[in-house]
Amino acid sequence: MKTFQTIQTSRPAALSLLALSALTLLSACGGSGGSTTPAVTYPAVMPVSVNFELLANGVPVKCGSSITGLGSKASTAELKDARFYISNVKLIDANDKLVPVTLTANDWQNDQVSLISFNDGSTTACGGTALPTNSVISGTVPGAAYKGISYEIGVPETLNHTDYATATKPMNVAAMAWSWTSGRKFLKLELNPVGGVNVTRINNTTVPPTTTNSVSSTWNLHLGSVGCTTNASNGSYSCTNSNRMVVKLANFDADKQKISLDLNALYAASDLSSDTSGAVGCMSGTTDQECKGIFDSFKIDLSSGNPTTAGVQSVFVARNK
């Protein structure tokens, strides 16, 4: 009888435990009055702003900044000019779909391209006259959740060879025009290294070959299309080397992050104290020895002008605001 009584008194306790477990499971599943996370609703169209900055040695820099530890020889250099065009801007949604950003027209952008400019004219090296700057691109996208961004450093071909003197903003900047290729400088970065740039040229047409040496104040980096020719019948242009840099940041939140152009990463393989061929620095010449390291950083094949990766690079990086 004691055994029976023990069994009888333990059954309700077991049932209560089962009932409690069932209720807990039901609540966890959202049933019987359990709360659920409300679905996120988005407007039909959302504004988007993407901020840019220049970065060196882990801190923001601007035109006129004296930067240490740049390049393969850890040079110290003053930043003289820094501007670049951005086009083909797209956000990456939750399904990895690239969604175009509709750019908002203003003094710094039209419906196809934006000009980012850090050239403020604050010092003699920067021009010596105060200039407006721009570090943001703005526009709209369809309402949705987005996790990344993709864009190009470059000007669309339909705008690249237009006359800057008659073009509308931001294509009317004379300093970004590139007369000898009848196009635009997609990116313009100029540095004045301490001690200057030792320029060495060897003339192999003489017997014996002769060497000349000089010093230049500025190491130039001008990215743009080269090998460009015009069709005399209709005035159109074609270029053998497009040289448009593709950038893809798979994880980027425009509300919380900005995009930094890391100068240390860009110049890592470049000796800013010397120059041995072509233009002083790198002006996108296919045989210019100083362009090899730069184009490797840009992930552009120097010989063809085509991207070498699907936007994966380490020059433009996402950082918290």
From TrEMBL:
Keyword tags: Signal
InterPro entries linked to this entry: MbnP-like (IPR023977), MbnP-like_dom (IPR046863)
Domain (Copper-binding protein MbnP-like): residue spans on this chain: 47-283
Keyword check for Signal: yes
Signal peptide: 1-27
The protein's name in its UniProt record: Metallo-mystery pair system four-Cys motif protein
